[in-house]
Every structure is written in structure tokens, then in C-alpha cells.
């Protein structure tokens, strides 16, 4: 695809960034996967400039690692990284709802958030990880619209995406169950709608406990030596096939149910 008409370079840059983020979240670009600007430009049929800009944007968001000589690599988050993400989210969200000046809840905005929560619960129970990721990211992003400080809202969204990047390969490998998934999103929305700080605190600590319990199990499996890494051969083969097939940036926008860049999510 080449930019034309009303499509500016910045729009193309965003389309490419969104498409690649979706590829990472879908597991088609596994952690550790390396690629160059030239490879991505050829895959999408665009010039190198918007691709380079998109890749640097994703690097700034913590999803890619750049190397002057080797190009770019999908970041491999560790269990320790994941623990830190969960802790940071809990601390920030709890702090926000203790400070009434930092959040402005709009009742009309809760309607769609409740719908995201219900649909994500349905996806989780049905074992549809792709749909779950899409609704979960939308859920947290829309909640973030109540946060008056845009830097905090952006930080929380980035943390959630990074947590899914950590989780997606492990969930595909191990499966999803109630020990991994957190089903408290609907309770969290209702607590926020009532301005019930105690219940917000309880919901976030439930999320944190699930996250830590999953991290403990992952570390125990790794210690036993029976847990393959997220970038195992089957993931790499799938990513290679996807790269050969190619996907145009404009085709990466999924229907609402599967849209990724957020309600029960993995403890992610």
C-alpha cells in the first residue's frame, strides 16, 4: 500500500504501528523475533520511512528492542517484569481513586465499559483469547478516559499492552482457566460507579493476587525445567508463515469484538 489522497505519512506510520502491535498481541510475532525495516516495508508494500518511524514508536512503548546492527526485536518480558507491571498498575489505580481530583467519572461513559466487561467475561469463558485481548484492552482504555492526567492514562494503557505481550504466548501454550484469568472487571466498574474506594481497593488487590499467583506458578515450572520458552519452535514457525503471507496495515483493524489496542484479562 502506498500513501495517497488523504492518507498522510503520519497516518501510515500509525497504521503500520497498529498492525505490528496486533501481530505481537496475536502471537504471530513472538518474543525474540528479529526483523529489519526493509523486511517490514516489503511485507506491507510501503517505503522505509513510515516503517522506521512506526518501529521506533513501538520501541518507545517498550514492545520492541532496537539494535543499530541487527534491526529490531520483539521484547522478551520476564516474570519479574510482569510482577512489576502488576504492582505498578495496582499502585497507580488505587492512588487515582483515593484522589477525587484525579478522576472524573462520567455515568454515560460507563455504559460501554460495562459492555466491554461482559463481553470479555464471555470470551474468557469461551476460551477465545483473541477476542478477550481486544475487549480487555478496550475496557482499560475506556476506563483511562476518566483519568484527568493524560500521562497517567497513557502509562496505564502501555502497561496493559506490555502485560498482554508477556502473557499471550504462555496462555496459548498452557491454556486459560480461572486460576490464571481474573473475573473482577464488572465488580470494579460497579465500585467505580458508586465511588466506593474500599471496593476499588478490594478489586485491584484481587487482580494483584491473581497476577502474583500466576507468576509463582510460572517460576515453579521454570525451576522444574519443564516449561518451554515463549519463543519455541512452533511459535517461530507460525510467525514465519504469517510474515510470508503479509498483512496490509489497513487490514489489521479487526471488528470491534476482536479489536486489540482491552474485561477479565489474564492476570496480565
TrEMBL record:
UniProt entry keywords in alphabetical sequence: DNA-binding, Transcription, Transcription regulation
InterPro entries found in the cross-reference section: GntR_C, TF_FadR/GntR_C, Tscrpt_reg_HTH_GntR, WH-like_DNA-bd_sf, WH_DNA-bd_sf
Molecular function (Gene Ontology), one example: DNA-binding transcription factor activity
Record-linked CDD domains: WHTH_GntR
Region: Disordered, residue numbers: 222-268
Protein name according to UniProt: GntR family transcriptional regulator
Domain HTH gntR-type: 10-77
Top-level taxonomic group: Bacteria
Regions of compositional bias (Low complexity) in chain numbering: 225-262
Any Pfam family the entry gives: GntR
UniProt keyword Transcription regulation present: yes
The species this protein was found in: Streptomyces anulatus (Streptomyces chrysomallus)
